[in-house]
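seq:
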Amino acid sequence: MARNIIDKYNAEPEDISAKEALEDKEYYEGMVSYDIKLKNLLDPYWKDIYLTGKYSEYEGNQRFSKAN
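struct:
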């Protein structure tokens, strides 16, 4: 998503490191892969806790709620 915005508005990198990351195809693919894994990991929590408003218990008996 951020990459779409960067491309749409021709955002310029802040420094040389950001420029190199922006132009690095492997870096981009790694970030996309990380994003997919993170989405798969966190979406169930997000849906159960924040969208439905339910309280749930997950690994380690750690309690999650809107208040936490």
